[in-house]
Structures are given as C-alpha cells and as structure tokens.
Amino acid sequence: KRKRNDPDAFATSMSKILSSKLTTSKRADPVLSRSKEASEVSKEMIDARLETKARHKLREEKKAALDRGRVKDVMGTESMDVSSAAVQEQERRLRKTAQRGVVKLFNAVRAAQVKGEEAAREARKTGTVGIVKREERVNEMSKKGFLDLIAGGGKKASGTVAQETI
Prior knowledge:
By secondary structure, this protein is mainly alpha-helical. It has helices spanning 7-19, 36-67, 84-126, 131-151. Helices cover 66% and strands 0% of the residues. Belongs to the RRP15 family.
C-alpha cells in the first residue's frame, strides 16, 4: 500500500499535529503554525501590538511631563477656604494693571513711529546721500527711540508723558 492514499497514515499525521505542544505565540493560529508565512504574520501582529502600546505609553508620559508644573486651579476656587469675592477683586486688579501696560506699550510704539518719521524728515533735510543710508539711519533712530521709550516706562525722551487713552 502507498502512504499517499492510506487513511491510517493521514490519521496518524493529523493526531501527531494536534497533539504537538504549541508555543503561546503560535496558539492563536494553530492550524498554520508550522508554516513560515503564518509565523511571520503572527510576529508582525505581535510587533504591531507592542508598538501601539509603546506609542500610547510615550504619549501618556509626554502628557504627564507637560502637566507636571501646571497649576490646574488658577483662580483657587476649588478650595473652600478662599472666598470668590477676594479672587474676583484680585483678578480685577490684575486686569487693570495689564490694561495700563498695554496702553503704555501702544503709546511707546506710536511715539517711536513719530520719532522715526521725524528722523526721516531730518535725514532728507540734512541731505543724507543714498536711500539705503537714509533708511539705515532712520531705522537706527527709531530702534533707539523705541528702546528708550520702553526703558523709560512709556515716557518720551524729552520728558513729556505720553497720552494715555483707554
């Protein structure tokens, strides 16, 4: 008898395959566990799962690192010992201070622009040769003027106080 058509040979082969011990990685796909393609596919699947877990873990660590120094309760309203009226008053004072600072900054910018225009007129009157040299001189004057205005707290260099408009 030939083994090719022998049902007993097939039965013994099948019982040997089914009774063989499989590793945990090959138990998910037991029928094709002995083929190379199946083992490669299962390894790729396992690698993909591990990579996904690693990315998730890295994302969580990055978020935790960003939140480490962050204060969640800025207003302090979540604690019971702080009154909301005191918090509102402090916020009002801070807003007023910020508004004054912005007004000073805008006034300093406007004064620097005016100073730059005056420097441009002066450069034309004195007859500075060349447009490039004239522009360099004007830019230098406006930079110096602006930095002086910022350092002076919004006051003009001549000593007059800039108008504050709200």
